[in-house]
TrEMBL record:
Transmembrane segments: none annotated. Coiled coil: none annotated. Residues 1-18 form the signal peptide. It holds the Pfam family TPR_1. TPR repeats lie at residues 50-83, 189-222, 370-403. InterPro entries: Sel1-like (IPR006597), TPR-like_helical_dom_sf (IPR011990), TPR_rpt (IPR019734). It comes from the Bacteria. PROSITE patterns: TPR, TPR_REGION. This is Tetratricopeptide repeat protein.
Length: 570
């Protein structure tokens, strides 16, 4: 009975050891490297066997700590010089360091001595897939095929074969290898995820998504699937889902890798979670020298209204890596400077405007450049800097004439010409020339508003501003005598009068349109009835209107029609 107890005790110990090693390998597969390292170190310290030394070294290889891996493998060999797994480990380190000849010599010796052992053949074959620059897919496939001949249930050998085939861009054959892994180990998360990666590379995003989800169903703690899902959602511009899945990857993996933390911060940033992005950036201080961190700081500070910090971060980024600067860097710097100027009571900052326009000029995407030029147009129009507004709107329209905002863009371009004309005052010896220039500006405004009426025939304001621009382009009496503005004002009235939602919003416009049409009807068309009709319409829209009351015999003499209502879009 004592002997039986001893035998079963030894077997139980061996099984615990094997299971513990498998647990460590599972942690590596799920990229929980910190936990895997702790486990293998504990095993090697507790029981310094050749096997435990090999797996400790293997952990170091997988985390790219080749010098530490070499120490572990050398200790394993010192414990047993015929430990061929540790010899394979030393060959793997040599291969990783670029010494292919040394690696080949070691591998050939191990294969010769242990050609019947599937595990040794598998580890040599796997080694040839671990370092892309020093890989040998053909040799890997040969060895891995030999390994599965000896153990058809060695699922990870099929995984490595698939990896080797992917190094040769043989996606179909790789998928078959991964499917064999599923046969050897049903519902294996690693295999499902690898198949998902093949579909992602082939841009079959639906099947990639399906296989990533299968990996998670097979093992909810399989971290790589969450990372790959994040990248997939990012490609699909589903940034919130991308950020959520990358967060899950970081939680499941327990990673403290600064580069991965930076990637997670980037996902938070593109998902518009700028507060979280700033938290992530703060955690990376002193742990990452990536210059793009200052760009992310600058953009995020701007988005969270920390203007001074945004200006400082972007200014430093632009000075430190000028060859990496893109249009948006200048745009955000300009917007931050402008935000500060507006807070100080200025309409805009001239330096800010220069930066924003520089950003637009660097845009490789015409649509984005167009949006920026129109942004400058709106900014300068509001500041009554109509020359700059005209230039900006014209550039924006030229770059993207099919934009959803195009009617609005043409509208404000027309208003910019009209407002510039209104502020052109004739005086001195050049009065005639100035008047001619003013007329040309109004006619240009009319031509722009005509585009608005073509593109939006049921929108009344384009017609209104055609009438106003032409009224100002000609002598007033000449305009009424010839009815130059009449068809445009009449069309405005026709459309506006049909609006049953809110007639009050047209009151200011009616005060210009109806008097003109009334005077035109009586003096040019000699139609007093029609004239009276327009005066009554004005009185209905504006019951206290003095002009309408006088024309209808209700008060003092009427004035001539006004030049224009305020330049206001309704």
């Amino acid at each position: 009975m004592k002997l039986v107890a001893l035998v079963f005790g030894v077997l139980a110990f061996i099984n615990v050891q094997a299971q513990t090693i498998q647990d460590g390998l599972a942690l590596i597969h799920t990229e929980r490297y910190n936990e895997a390292g702790q486990l293998f170190k504990k095993l090697a310290e507790g029981t310094p066997s050749p096997e435990n030394q090999y797996y400790l070294g293997y952990y170091y290889v997988k985390t790219n700590q080749l010098d530490e891996a070499q120490k572990a493998f050398e200790k394993g060999v010192s414990l047993e010089d015929k430990s061929y797994l540790n010899q394979v480990g030393l060959g793997t380190v040599a291969l990783g360091k670029g010494d292919k000849a040394k690696a080949k010599t070691i591998f050939e010796e191990a294969e010769k001595k242990k050609k019947k052992e599937a595990e040794v053949l598998y580890r040599i074959g796997e080694a040839y897939t671990l370092f892309e620059k020093n890989s040998d897919p053909a040799e890997a496939i040969r060895l891995l095929d030999e390994a599965v001949k000896r153990d058809k249930n060695l699922a990870d050998a099929y995984i490595s074969k698939g990896d080797a085939l992917m190094l040769r861009n043989e996606g179909g054959a790789a998928a078959t290898a991964y499917e064999y892994a599923l046969t050897a180990k049903p519902n294996y998360a690693v295999a499902h995820n690898r198949i998902g990666e093949i579909y992602l590379r082939g841009k079959n995003y639906n099947l990639a998504l399906e296989n990533y989800k299968k990996a998670i169903e097979a093992d909810p703690n399989f971290a790589p699937a969450y990372k790959d899902l994040a990248e997939l959602y990012y490609l699909g511009q589903k940034y919130k889902q991308a950020a959520e899945n990358f967060d899950l990857f970081m939680q499941k993996s327990g990673s403290t890798d600064p580069e991965l933390e930076l990637r997670g911060t980037q996902f938070a940033f593109v998902a518009d979670d700028y507060a979280k992005a700033l938290q992530g950036l703060d955690k990376l201080k002193g742990r990452s020298n990536n210059p793009f961190i200052k760009r992310m700081y600058g953009w995020s500070y701007f988005k969270t209204n920390e203007t001074d910090k945004a200006i400082q971060s972007l200014d430093e980024f632009i000075k430190e890596v000028p060859d990496k600067v893109i249009g948006d860097d200048y745009k955000y710097l300009g917007r931050a400077l402008n935000q500060k100027a507006v807070a100080a009571g200025q309409p805009y900052d001239s330096t800010a405007l220069t930066y924003i326009l520089k950003g637009a000029s660097l845009d490789t995407n015409k649509v984005e450049a167009a949006v920026t030029y129109k942004e400058v147009g709106a900014l300068t129009y509001a500041a009554k800097d109509y020359d700059k507004a005209i230039d900006a709107y014209a550039k924006g329209i030229a770059l993207d004439s099919s934009a959803k905002t195009i009617i609005n863009d043409y509208y404000y371009l027309g208003l910019s010409y009209f407002q510039k004309a209104s502020r052109t005052i004739a005086s001195g010896a050049d009065s005639a020339q100035i008047l001619q220039a003013k007329r040309a500006l109004n006619i240009k405004a009319d031509s722009i508003f005509s585009i608005v009426t073509v593109k939006s025939p049921e929108w009344p304001y384009g017609y209104y501003w055609r009438g106003v621009a032409l009224y100002n382009a000609y002598d007033r009496q000449e305009n009424i005598d010839k009815g130059i503005s009449a068809p445009h004002y009449a069309k405005f009235a026709e459309i506006a009068e049909k609006d049953t939602t809110d007639q009050g919003k047209y009151k200011g416009f009616y005060k210009v349109v109806y008097p003109y049409l009334a005077f035109y009807s009586s003096s040019t068309l000699k139609d007093d009835a029609k004239s009276k009709e327009y005066w009554n319409k004005l009185l209905k829209a504006d019951p206290e209107n003095v002009n309408a009351k006088e024309a209808l015999g209700l008060s003092a003499p009427a004035a001539q029609p006004a030049a224009a209502a305020p330049a206001k879009k309704k």
